[in-house]
Design goal:
Layout: E1 4-9, H1 13-28, E2 32-33, E3 42-47, H2 52-59, H3 62-71, E4 76-81, E5 88-89, H4 98-101, E6 107-108, H5 117-124, E7 153-157, E8 159-160, H6 171-174, E9 179-180, H7 183-195, E10 200-204, H8 215-218, H9 229-238, E11 247-251, H10 260-268, E12 275-277, H11 285-291, H12 297-310, E13 315-322, H13 329-342, E14 346-351, H14 359-363, H15 370-393, E15 399-408, E16 411-415, E17 421-425, E18 434-442, E19 447-452
Parallel strand pairs: 1-2, 1-3, 3-4, 4-6, 7-10, 10-11, 12-13, 13-14, 17-19
Antiparallel strand pairs: 5-6, 8-9, 15-16, 15-18, 16-17, 18-19
Helix pairs in contact: 7-9, 13-15
The structure holds S-adenosyl-L-homocysteine (SAH), iron/sulfur cluster and FE3-S4 cluster (F3S).
FE3-S4 cluster (F3S) is lined by residues 11-12, 14-15, 48-50, 81-82, 170-171, 174-175.
Length: 454
């Protein structure tokens, strides 16, 4: 009988992209993907550790697993993603601590060890015929050909890990040291995508603009003699416009690594979209220092000024943490002030969550009360809504180009060049098409209009 699997993906785009590689491995084993945990023989949680809430969601699933196992003794459960530290099974002597905390889980694997998963499954399911898979001998899991979710849009990881050690952040521990994929490998993946009809590529990494420059990268010959590898990479991918690539995006960026030359490249490359995600985290210099971010609020203001100068109308989004250790009301007000100066198009607001093992967890005090964190979050959210609306209103009476991603109840939905969610009525399902939309209304979280044909 055919066996099936279900993946629950939490966290950032990197995890979603990793899940597409997990899909390929499991599908090559003959497993069928299902959309509900209840029907699966293998359940995988691809996890995020950035905040406690994400981890709690996984532990919260354990009661469901116990229930499902009653009727399905062969049910296998696994955890991967940022909650795992080593690859191990319940039988192993050296076990990931997670297996103790989640007794219903059979094995955990680091995404870098994805190729080992077939062997692990084989050991659990001795009655199940598992074919040999070609991927077993690949040098890196990045070389696994993903089972892309979309045929016209793709996420392409250009590296993983982070060397920045912002004091609040778990990523340098969960994803380990920063390492970049070779330019040839990334280019090949992008070329294949475009040759198969992909219109939009988003390059992914914890910090894409330090691509090729990490300590581990310097130990290889891959980036020798290349001054700004990320710009080089963008240029190469931009050349795929001849084969049909329409849009290039990348995320996430560290402001300290966004060079003038990169801004110039963004301004000139044809496929590069006029949008950048530039996490600021706080508007207070003292808090930024505590966070180990290596810039001041004024330095960030200046960076945004340069971006606006070189790429007029560019949309900029950010991440902000409220209630970080020792953050005073005055320091929080500096963040509100910065919001009013910058007028971000969008901001992802988070209440500080103390992460075990980080510098802040060891050395600083999580001393802003939960209610103050909530209050600050709400206050900032009101500011965000006002500016999101203002930024959307600018598009009223203008024409944008939309790559349609969804269709339902006679409404098409997609993103504009500036990454604005745009809705318009249509009798036809236009998923995967690039269409021109005249914007009638800008709302808080979306643009609304009608399609225009030339
Ligand atoms: N490398 C990227 C992504 C980091 S994680 C970057 O630097 O932008 C995404 C966001 O999660 C961060 O920008 C930060 O705003 C938030 N975040 C990280 N650690 C957090 C913590 N301990 N508590 C609350 N939010 C956190
Ligand atoms: Fe975390 Fe900072 Fe690295 Fe982003 S740059 S992943 S916030 S340590
Ligand atoms: Fe979360 Fe890991 Fe991404 S901790 S935000 S899934 S890199």
């Amino acid at each position: 009988m055919k066996r099936s699997y279900y993946i629950q993906t939490l966290g950032c785009q990197m995890n979603y992209s990793d899940s597409e590689r997990i899909d390929r491995i499991l599908q090559n084993l003959g497993l069928e993907k299902v959309e509900s945990m209840n029907n699966a023989d293998l359940i995988i949680f691809n996890t995020c550790s950035i905040r406690q809430k994400g981890e709690d969601r996984v532990f919260g699933q354990m009661v469901n697993i116990t229930r499902l196992r009653k009727n399905k003794p062969h049910l296998l459960t696994a955890i991967t993603g940022c909650m795992t530290r080593i690859t191990s099974t319940r039988q192993d002597e050296e076990r990931d601590k997670l297996l103790r905390r989640a007794p219903e889980v059979d094995f955990v694997f680091r995404i870098e060890d994805l190729q080992r998963v077939p062997e692990i499954i084989k050991n659990f399911w001795s009655d199940f015929q598992i074919p040999e898979i070609a991927e077993a001998n690949l040098a890196s899991y990045f070389q696994i050909n993903p089972a892309y979710t979309s045929s016209f849009q793709a996420f392409v990881p250009i590296g993983t890990g982070c060397d920045n050690f912002c004091t609040y952040c778990i990523v340098p521990y969960s994803r380990k040291r920063e390492i970049s994929r070779s330019m040839d490998e990334i280019f090949e993946e992008c070329k294949n995508l475009v040759e198969n009809g992909c219109l939009e590529i988003t390059l992914l990494g914890q910090n894409v603009n330090s691509y090729g420059l990490s300590n581990l990268d310097k130990k290889t010959d891959l980036f020798k003699d290349i001054d700004q590898p990320f710009i080089e990479l963008l240029k190469r991918i931009d050349s795929l416009k001849n084969k049909g690539l329409k849009r290039l995006r990348f995320t996430s960026n560290h402001p300290k690594d966004l060079s003038d030359e990169l801004i110039d490249a963004m301004a000139t490359l044809e496929t590069q979209m006029p949008y950048v995600h530039l996490p600021v985290q706080s508007g207070s210099d003292q808090v930024l220092k505590h966070m180990n971010r290596h810039y001041t609020a004024d330095w960030y203001r200046d960076l945004v000024r340069k971006l606006n100068e070189k790429i007029p109308g560019i949309a900029i989004s950010t991440d902000i943490i409220v209630g970080f250790c020792d953050e005073t009301e005055e320091q929080f007000m500096e963040t509100c002030k910065l919001f009013e100066d910058i007028e971000w198009d969008m901001a992802y607001l988070a209440q500080y969550s103390n992460r075990k093992g980080t510098f802040a967890w060891k050395n600083l005090q999580d001393n802003v009360s939960l209610s103050d964190k909530k209050k600050r979050w709400h206050k900032l959210n009101i500011i965000l809504k006002a500016y999101a609306l203002k930024k959307h209103k600018i598009f009223e009476g203008k024409t944008v180009e939309v790559l349609v991603e969804k269709y339902g109840n006679g409404i098409c939905e997609g993103r504009s060049e500036h990454f604005k969610t745009t809705l318009f009525p249509s009798d036809e399902n236009l998923i995967g098409k690039l269409v021109k939309v005249y914007v009638e209304r800008g709302r808080e979280w979306q643009l609304e209009g009608h399609m225009i044909t030339d």
